[in-house]
Structures are given as structure tokens and as C-alpha cells.
Fold each of these.
Amino acid sequence: MKTKENNLRKRQQENMLMKRITVLFALIMVCTSLNGQGLWSQPKINHSQSLLAINVAVATEINSNSVAGNISEYLVEETEAPMEVENWMTNESYFNCYIDFLEVEHEEKLEIENWMVDEEFFVKSYMLIDKEEVLEIENWMVDESYWK
């Protein structure tokens, strides 16, 4: 018994050591990845300063004549060829299939038949509810010597 407990503790310690090594390895990999992307060396500025810097840069580019001239070269108005009505677009045989769905169908009035209300057709043995005996409190249930 003592040997089993020792073996169990040893396995638990080995498992804990492996978990710690795995977490440490994952942390090292994340740090290496962030360092490779240069995220550690970026200057720390808050959000409002970065938005202000972006707005100033955009305003400077818009005011510059050389940038505006370059942008206007890409702003070309394009037109599409006019569309034409083709024969199949006006041919009713292509579209008549949907008309059938719009028509209301008239069905016969449904009537209740005798077999529909006869319990003989529907009551099966698995549908019968089992009746259980009424539960009663017995002496041992309230005897304090059982419940210490």
C-alpha cells in the first residue's frame, strides 16, 4: 500500500513537472515570436497620440499637390455597355412554372371516420401507464439510530 502511494505521488510530481516545462516552452516561443516581429522594440504611445499622428499625416498628403495629382490619375469614370432585352427574357414559357404555385387548390372536406376515434387502434401495451404502489413511511426511516 505504501509503495502504491509513493508511485502515485511520483507520477503526480512527474506530471506536474511536464506541465510546467510545457508552459515554460510555450512562453518562450511566444516571446521569441513577438521579438521576431519587432513588437518589443516599438515605441509606447497611447491611442489618442497615434490617431492624431495619422490625421496629421493624411491632412499633409491631401494638401500636397504631387499627391493630389497622383490620385487624380486613378480616378477615371468608367461606363458600362447598355443592356439589351433578349428573347428569352420576354418568353412566357420560361416563367409559367411559378404561376402554378399561386393557384389555390380546393380539397375535399375531411371527415372523421369511426376507426379514428376507436381506442382499439391506438392504445398499445407500451402506452399504458404503470401503476405503482403507494409509498408509505416505515419505522426504520424515522428511527434516529440509523441516522447518526
Amino acid sequence: MNSKRSHVIGAGLGAAAALFVLFAAQTARAQTVSGEVLDCTGRVLRDVTVELYKVTTPGGTRTVSGGVSGQTDKGGYFRFPTSGGTLTPGTYYVVVKCPRNQGGLVLQSNEFYLSAGFTTGNTISLKFICCPTIGSNAVLRRTDVDNVVPEFTPFGGLVESVPPPRPPGAPVVVGNVEFVHTGDWQPGDQVSFTVRGKVVDDKAGRQADLTGHVVKIEDPSGKQRTVAWSPLIRYTVSAAVGRITASLLNPNGTVLSRTTIPVNPAGTPAPYQTVEPPTGTCVAPALNQIGQPFQIYSPNNQLAQGDIELVVRNEANGASEVCKPVAVSPHSAIFEPKGETPGRHTFTVRRTGALQEVFTVYRLLVGLDTKRLQNVGKKGTVTVEVSGFPLDEVELRKLLSFKPTLRITNNTPDVLAFTKDPSEFSVKLDGGGIEGGTFRRDILTKAIRAGDFEIKARTELIILLTPRIIKQE
């Protein structure tokens, strides 16, 4: 499933649930009309009925004639004339009759003109997307098909805060301001965290980062400290236990966003388990969902000492990236790998003048197959797909020994209801349903009303890896 393609194709469709693209100018010289028909995940659709109509205006009266019918071949392609030859000059349009399991829509292209005197081989090329809908006015919105909105880490981190109403003349915050922290602060910790977002400069009308803004931090005892915004903010946690309030202020002192961060009692136990006794300075998850943060943990609370970075290497093609942390405490650090290829990777934790610790981590891609959805009042199916698991049975069993789960959440049950499952449930990834490196789980649904729907899926686990290699830098 090419879910990323579906995002690009489906963007900005408005009230329509299908799209066609004219690749040649409407007045292009041509003698054939061809194209392809896809579903909203980018898969080709074969045996789809396609019709070509010619528009004439005898005596000034518009007349539609022709209705020549054909079907897409096994590659999803069609061509007119169907038996070879050329089309006569004139104005035409194409109609595609989508299959019932793709919404049953009838799609019509814009009209285009084929001129006389054309050169052999030129053609008008069209692309049609048959996308399932919930009701005639619904737009199919598949949140988290390619990746999950990064609002979750296993034991804290990444808190989003919605800005308050905008005072007159204040800059506009574009989207939410994000406060990214590790969620495990304790008294006396030296930590770093990220505050990020975009604002609009009212005078220039351009989006800008938060340069010139400040972050005000109030500890549980009421003591306040104000620091200039920077990409990574450093802070020493006070001795008080409770909740810290962090606020983002613009240069005029207006609060744009605010969140609270817990300060846990000293010695709070770590919220994870390991199969083997911890070695080195950190442990890490064996899985990383693409689009999700990656959080490592230090059993001996040593991560805040010195600079730290994460090197992520794809073992299949050798591609690698270096990730700087977006949040660090003595107990854990959060990174955000950007690569989008699922499968086996090597994650190396590097610190200046310290040990390098290497982990084997499988990156998983979560997708949502929606081609079996139906219209309002009818039952259908969505399929959650998770790819990137090892093909080797021994490796797969070892990976599953960490007891991963997949949490599925339906945020819009009033639009698309789960008929056999609750709106939020977890599935144990214990080997059942995993074939060829991909896990699939069908969810029976019923379309309640027309509208957008949102389904999220994320992988979780609480048993972490110890490093397989420890080497001196």
C-alpha cells in the first residue's frame, strides 16, 4: 500500500472524493486519449468501465454523442480508440464508473479539444482516483496513515498546548505550540527541552520561528525564571516537587501558550522493564514507529552528562542520519528520526568522550487500508497494516518477546463506528496476523453519517533492550 501517495493525491479535494489530472494542455494536439484509474491508496484498478463522449454544437445547440465504452486493463490503463487508430478532431470528455467497493462514484473529466493536423503518437493523458466516501459530501481523511501525530511517547514527553485567544494586534500562532520534554524530571536535575511553533509577522505576513520570544518557567514553590527562546532550552529543576508551569511569551509579553510539567520525587522508579540486566549507560525500545519520537533511558541516570546524539542506520541500504535530542534529562532522552523506510536499523547512542552503545531497532510503518469502506448506513471494513517486522522467524520471535502492542483509537465514532470493537483497544503483537513482515488487523465498521473521520494507531512496549555492542569512542 502506498499510503503516502494517497495523502498527496487526496489533498484539497473539497467536497469531492475523487480527482483526475490532465497532463496535457486542453488544446494539445492529440489523436488518442489514454489514462489510468487508481484507488485512493495508489493501487491500480482493473476492469473499470471508462466511457468517452464527444461534444458537438450543431446550429449552436450543445449535443453529446458517442458514449464509446472500454475497460481498464490489468495495469489500470485505458485508451481510446480501444482498437487502435485515431480520434477525429473535436471536443471530448471521459467518464469513469468507479467500482461499488470504491464508493461507486461516477467521475467526469473536464472537456478537452483534439485539434486537426496533429503528429502521430501524441495523446491526452488522464488520471482518475476512485476514493471511498462516507456520504456524497464526505472527504476521506485518513489521519496517521503515514505516521502518527507525535503526541505520544511511552512514559511522558511531547505535550501540546493550544494557545489562548489572540489579543488584538498580537502575532498569530500557526497551529499548536509544542513543549517537548522527557516527562521524568526530578529535583536537582539538569534538563533540556524544546518549545517550538510558528508565528505570523503581522507586518510582513510571513511565518517565522520563535526568535525574540521568551519562556517563563514557574516552579512548584512559585519561583519564576525567564529565559530567551532557543532551539533547545536548558534548565535546572528546583528542589520542590509538584508541577512546573512553562509559558511561551512574545516580545510584547503576551502569553501565547502554556503547559505544565511534572516534577517527580527523587528516586522515582523507572517505568520500564528489561529482559537482561542493564549494561552500559542506557536501554532502548526494540521498535520505533515511523513518525513517532524515540526515547532512550538511563538506568544509572547519566544521560545529561555531556553532548549526546543518535545515529540511525538503515541496514538494508546503508543510509544513515544523525539525530540531535529534542529533550534530555539524566533519566532519558528523546530523538525524532526522520527516515521513512521500515525494517531493521542500527541505532547508535554517542556521547562525547563516553561509550557508544549500539541497538538493533525495527522501524515500523503504520498504515490504514480504507478501500472496503461503504457509504452512510452500510457496513464496511478498515484494515490496520504495520510493516517492517523481520522476515526471519528467529528474529521475529525475539522481537515479539518484548511484548509489543498496537493501540488503535477511533476519534470520530459518530462518523465511522467500530461495530465489533470498542472505540479504543489494544492488540497484542504476538505473531498472529504477521505475514511477510506485515501485520494486518481488520476492523468492522459502519458509516453513521457523512463527514471526516480520524483513526489513530500506535505501537507500544514497556520491555526495553540492553545494547548489543558497547565500545569506547
